[in-house]
Amino acid sequence: MEKFTRTTTFSINFNESFNSSDSILNPTTPSTLEVISNEIFDYFDSHREQIPLLVIVYLLTIIWIIYLILYHSRIQGIILSYILRRFFLKDSTQIKFDSFSISFISGAIIFRNLHYTTGSYFIFIKDGCLVFRYWSKTKTKPIIRLKIKLYHLDIQFFSPIRSSTLSDNNNNNNNNNNNLTDDLQRGSINGISTKGDDTQSENTIKSNEEGLFVKRLRNLFPAIEIKVEHGRISAGHDTLPYGLLIRFSTMTSTFTSISPSRNLSQIDLMTLIYNLKYRNLRIQLYPIRVYNGETREIPPPIPTSKPADSGIFQVFECLDGEIEYEQDVPGKMIEQLDNSEPLPDLTWEFRVKCHKDAKIAYGPWADRQREALWQYFFPTLFEDCPVTPEPSVGQTRIFKNVRFKLWLYCPTIIDIYFMSKMKLHQIHAELPNQGSYFDATFPFSTNPDGFDTNISINIKQPIIRTNLQFTQLFKADEIDINLHIHYPRLWNSIQIWTLGIITKKPQVYFVFEHKCFFQSLINDWSSPVPPDIYSFAPFIYDISLQGNHVEFLIPCNQGNWIDCPNENNRQKQQQQQPAENNFISICAKSVSLTYPLPFLEFCPKVTPMDITIDVQDLLARLVIPENNRMFYILEGVDSHKRFYTPNGIKSQLTLSDEFEKRDGCFDCGEVPNIKVLIEILLHSSPPIDTNRSDLLYVQHVKSMGNRQTFHPNKLDYDLFNVEIDIGPVNLFVYGLFLKKLWWVKENIFGWDQVFHDIHEPELIREKKIIVHDDPLVDIIDETYPFDPRYFRPLMATVRVALHNITGHLIHHTDDEPCPIAFCERLCFEMTTDLDETRLQVFFLPVNIYIEDTIVRNKSDQHLSTGCLQLSGLVIRGHAMLSHEGLPPERETLEYAWQMEIILGKISARVTTIQIEKFICFLKNFYLQIMEDEYTLVRSPVIDKAKWIEKLKYDVLRFSLDSIDLNLVEVGNALNVQLEKLSKFMFNELNSESRVSDNLTGTINVVKDMTSKADDYECETNNNEDNDYNNSSDEDEDIVSDNEENAEHVQSIKNNLFWNMYHR
Question: What is the pairing mode between strands 794-808 and 846-851?
Fold first, then answer.
């Protein structure tokens, strides 16, 4: 390989200048920053005299940018606010923008802290943005071109809405025609044009121009979207203790207009539709801090999860839902033919839908705040309401009504809170299924006879409870409530309220404590303000209640003990072991109640009212738990019973399959028809101001005395007259059923009216509750002034008539039907007042028929049917009552009881087999009546005034006309006769409290044997006729016995009064 050597020679001239930018001589390229800096330096070197101007321009640019970013929108807001206030708004209206900016390229308007104030309301928006998408093309579906976004919207109403109307009406009282014209010209009312024919063409031109403008506006904005974050709407004033507040966290809505599809499109212009979706919607009553009134009523102490809501009453809450608003834009009236149908009304609806966790709370306190808000914002117009004229041809149509509808598409909870003796009470309703709604139609025009309001409520499967220890109250499949209110044109004319309630398969629980519970609710709901004749308006309540397949459940435990499961372990206890309660179940296929309430006079002395109840196809049942000793006995008898009916021998009642049968349920009787009429005459007791001693009525009330000196006989009686007609009656004679009915009587009308939890003794021991010797200490509330009118005595008259009674003497049988008893009529009458109670029970002849299946000869077949007859029965009772020396809150004491039992003739013709069947029934009946293994004593928390039972004077008089017993067999007969039997028994009130009695009677026994039993049957009938002839003489003997003991009874009564007063 060869080597080549090459030598290069450079010729350099040092006098030449060196160029460093030459790419051949400089191997590295300068950076961009270096090039820019060099150029800047060169520019400054060449323009040294312009440097101060450049600095000024640079500073101004910085200032301008800062101004555009921070101050330009604020300056624009101030300028825009001034222009709007100066040229467009009235003096009383104020508007202010903290900042306002507009972008024409993006089509956006942004503002902050908008304050808009008028004489009636105030609007505040913290941040707002309007985006106009003018580049969007119109499609078949309305496109959203305008979007409005608002953050923290606050609207406050603080002035009466009717204040201007009131002032206008007051200024024009002397010119009613001008008033009517002003009202008709007001567009917010009806929009009717009242101009003459000369200006009709001009109006038509203007309306066409307005219609063209609206049409162009609809084409420009087919739909508008509005989104609000954290908004609230409130109404209140510093003269009101509480205001109304509506809050929501998110609201997304769309506003659009469509052609009027419901009504005639050639008449109306269009339909406005506003769809809104909300989240966390709450309606509350909140306290106004600047309230300058005298007193502020404290809301019910409802427990809340948030401490900040302690003074707020939340009326409505829903986590998710929708609101729909629909309104027609009215057009002009057209001429109609004579036979044509009237034009449909304009549509104006407001619909609210709840989709998640809706809660509604209300009560007397909330209703009083609602009334105060209504009276402030919509004060009563004390004038004759003018009739709204119908628009003529060419005039604008008017709205007749506005409709509001609330749909509940989610499980809902409704609570009603009220106070009684400083204690919170609650009615809790659960609606587990969706579909319930509230529909209301409010008038927007006045007819010649006034205007009407219609309210319709539909509730699906409600479960209603109370906060009592026995929580169960009501449940049903469906409830329909319809309310129609007619208001006259004159504010103080008669108003008519028609209320109709229809229930399907309701189940109602009733204890006597419910009466006190609802009475406390009515007392809290009633107004404590004395009535004022200047604000009095007469009205009539027409209430009708109808129930289909109704069931009433009344606890019938001895001593009114009730097994009340705790709220926390209710579900656990129902799964493991049900409550051990006995119930009397009364099922009815149809119940109709009519209750008119007329209030036509101002503070009348008495108010009459009538209640009519009609019950169809009633079935009485006994519900007992499985652990009851009688359960399996009744189950065995019920499964092996056979009885006579008009359609043959049956094993169950006709109505047994009409109602759902639960465990431990036994049929006891049925009635096809019951009618009840209750006539009431009540004395009114309106609230009074005790400080107004100058009023005669207040002086009269104070003259009755205080709690220590008042006696109820100083007041007139409230009158109750009850008439009940029942029949025909088909009854199973169960001893346990009659025993439970007696306990129901004691639990409702006797000593044991207050029920007690079965776990009450344990709670008393665990919580160391002090039980007073006299529970009256807990009843009397010294904080309230004593009003004697609340202790007005009652005089009641009750009449009950049972027709065509058929009683089946039930016992265990498979082949033969049970004995049957007939009674044509049973009457009961009772009168009671402050001093005494008198009652009487009357039976028409009672016949009992007993059959056997013994095979006999043809001539002796008549012996297979035995007969027992009671010619009549009268039971009279007389209770003597006293209220001397007792406080008004205590019940009246019964110090004497007189009872008289009068039996007619008892006759019988039976065989030994038939007697055996009858004794089998009596044994079973006696076992059910006298069973006392699970006897419950009275609660220690009861009225300790039961010592009166030891001092009560008891008198019993018993008389029997005669007994004629014929024991008949084939060829044999035994006749036993008892001519007269009377008994007198009373207790002697001494240290030993002995009981004295006296029994007299005569017994005759006749024994005879013949070959024919018919002879003895005829003899028996003859004896019966003789005994009936002697019955009048025996009645005279009974009366003479009464006169002999009258002096002795009177002396014992006097001694008893003496002992009671000294005790």
Answer: unpaired
**How far is residue 848's CA from residue 983's CA, in Å, rounded to a whole number?**
26
Short-list 123, 113, 73, CA closest to 93 = 123
| Tens digits of residue pLDDT in 103-151 | 888 888 999 999 999 888 999 999 999 998 766 665 556 678 889 999 9
Residues 408, 435 contacting (CB under 8 angstroms): yes
CA distances from 978 to 448, 908, 997, 1000, 1041 (A): 80, 12, 20, 11, 19
Q: How many alpha carbons fall within 13 Å on the CB side of residue 417?
A: 19
**Alpha carbon distance 370, 362 (integer Å):** 10
Can you name the residues that pair with 320 across neighbouring β-strands?
A: 279, 356
Burial of 340-359, coded b for 16+ CB within 10 Å and e otherwise, reads eeeeebbbbebbbbbbeebb
Domain spans of the chain, in order of start: 869-908+952-1063
Q: Which of 454, 447, 436 is nearest to 496 (CA)?
A: 454
DSSP state of 84: I
Burial class (CB in 10 A: 0-12, 13-18, 19+), 503: buried
Query: Cα–Cα distance between 543 and 596 in angstroms, integer?
Result: 6
Report the DSSP beta bridge partners of residue 356. 320
CA-atom Rg of the chain in angstroms: 45
User: Could you give the angle at the alpha carbon of 607 between the alpha carbons of 602 and 612, nearest 5°?
Assistant: 140
Closest CA to 247 of 349, 357, 152: 152
Contacting residues for 359 by C-beta, under 8 A, at least 6 apart: 314, 316, 317, 318, 412, 413, 414, 415
CA 38 to chain centroid: 91
pTM of the entire structure? 0.81
Q: How many CB atoms lie within 10 A of CB 981?
A: 19
Neighbour-count burial of 600, counting CB atoms closer than 10 A to its CB (0-12 exposed, 13-18 middle, 19+ buried)? exposed
Q: Which residues contact 199 (CB under 8 A, 6 or more apart)?
A: none
The tokens for 97 are 């923008």
Asked whether the beta carbons of 150 and 125 are under 8 A apart, the reply is yes
Q: How many CB atoms lie within 10 A of CB 946?
A: 11
* Cβ–Cβ < 8 Å for 625, 578: yes
Please state, in angstroms and rounded to a whole number, the distance separating the CA atoms of residues 915 and 498: 60
Contact 880, 1054 (CB under 8 A): no
* Start-to-end C-alpha separation, the chain: 154
**Residue 926 CA to its chain's centroid (Å):** 44
User: Are residues 532 and 492 in contact, defined by beta-carbon separation less than 8 angstroms?
Assistant: no
CA 755 to chain centre: 23
Shortest CA distance to 913 belongs to which of 989, 995, 970? Answer: 970
List, for residues 853-912, the tens digit of each pLDDT value: 888 888 888 888 999 999 999 999 999 998 888 888 878 888 899 999 999 999 999 998
User: How many Å apart are CA 666 and CA 639, to the nearest integer?
Assistant: 10
| 187 contacts: CB under 8 Å, gap ≥ 6 | none
Q: Nearest 10 degrees: CA dihedral of 168, 171, 175, 179?
A: 0
